[in-house]
UniProtKB/TrEMBL annotation:
Transmembrane spans: 7-25, 31-53, 73-93, 99-116
Keyword terms: Membrane, Transmembrane, Transmembrane helix
Source lineage: Bacteria, Fusobacteriati, Fusobacteriota, Fusobacteriia, Fusobacteriales
Name under which the protein is recorded: I-protein
Gene coding for it: atpI
């Protein structure tokens, strides 16, 4: 796997652990069941995307990639459905935020990269 992908997975796992500890401190099931569970499912979904991308490079298959996509979103839907049925809207919203864990980490990494490039350009002008 690419180093950047490994870094994203590592950072999202650290974020998941922080969310879990925060959920235990505030003793909120919306946080430690919803958000932490969403973070873990998001992490597994991203890992699944990476494996599917590697397999698609070796043997291109439209059907395999679409099937993987549908499976991931079915898992996300079932997870959110279980949260809303048994723990209510707060856990559902926490789970939805948890599912965005990977996207938040990618956004933060990209933002840090842009800021670093801006710093390099500003140093050239001094």
């Amino acid at each position: 796997m690419n180093q950047e992908i490994k870094k994203i997975l590592k950072n999202s796992m650290i974020t998941s652990i922080i969310v879990f500890i925060y959920g235990l401190v505030v003793r909120s099931p919306a946080v430690y069941l919803g958000m932490f569970g969403g973070c873990i499912i998001s992490w597994l979904g991203f890992y699944s995307i990476c494996l599917e991308a590697e397999a698609a490079v070796k043997i291109p298959s439209f059907q395999r990639t679409v099937t993987g996509y549908l499976k991931r979103y079915l898992i996300y839907g079932i997870y959110l459905g279980i949260l809303i049925k048994f723990w209510g809207i707060a856990a559902f919203l926490g789970g939805a935020l948890g599912l965005l864990n990977i996207k938040f980490n990618i956004f933060i990494m990209t933002g840090a990269l842009v800021i670093e490039k801006i710093k390099c350009r500003l140093k050239k002008f001094k």
